[in-house]
Amino acid sequence: MSPDLPPTASDADPARIAAHPRVQRVPSRDLMLFIQRDFLSPTECAALIDRIELRRRPSTIADANGDDVFRTSETCDLDMSDPFVAQIDARLAAFAGIDPAYGEPIQGQRYTVGQEFKAHTDFFDPHGADFPRYCSVSGNRTWTLMIYLNQPGAGGATRFVKIGKTVQPETGKLLAWNNRNDTGRCNDASMHHGMKVRSGVKHIITKWYRERPWG
Ligand SMILES: O=C(O)CCC(=O)C(=O)O
Ligand SMILES: [Fe+2]
């Protein structure tokens, strides 16, 4: 496939991801998780942080669980018509090898000291009350791509609690994981915790792909 043309596949090809330069696969039988440092430059990260600062709102969760402090960060829906955001979206799709049409709009997340996103999965619970609302059109989430835009003073790691792997935030570092297991079902081993920031502010972007085109 030409690197200049957007991918047309509905799902990622892990071999293609693994073949990108500097990509590391986290050793685990239970979860397909890749890391690439320096996916974005510090300048690109700073430009995204500026946009997140301008449009942030309190973060939400699906399937309310009675815990008011489950996700205490702020969220920003990035403007996908902004050419700068659009070219980052195209690079994410090219990295995953997924047709950009399957992607949700990129979100930014911002955590100040003490804020976190407790252990959760990114897929929607097929038996949860909110499943029809979030998934009837585009299906469930498939892959998550997430990029740390900065390194907070302390804290803010992402802990994959079921496989015992903790990833430290570093400016420009990309994580990519499959939210499904080998049989294509929702994978509980993808559960992860955006841990409390202890000093400074943490910014990330998240990109979720769906089973069917986003709409
Ligand atoms: O902040 C993190 O490290 C994780 C964020 C996350 O899991 C999410 O936004 O779904
Ligand atoms: Fe998550």
Automatic annotation (TrEMBL):
Its EC number is 1.14.11.2. GO terms for molecular function: iron ion binding; L-ascorbic acid binding; procollagen-proline 4-dioxygenase activity. It comes from the Bacteria. Residues 102-211 form the Fe2OG dioxygenase domain. InterPro entries: Oxoglu/Fe-dep_dioxygenase_dom (IPR005123), P4HA-like (IPR045054), Pro_4_hyd_alph (IPR006620), Pro_4_hyd_alph_FE2OG_OXY (IPR044862). PROSITE patterns: FE2OG_OXY (PS51471). Its cofactor is L-ascorbate. Keywords: Dioxygenase, Iron, Metal-binding, Oxidoreductase, Vitamin C. This is Prolyl 4-hydroxylase. It comes from Sphingobium vermicomposti. The lineage of its organism: Bacteria, Pseudomonadati, Pseudomonadota, Alphaproteobacteria, Sphingomonadales.
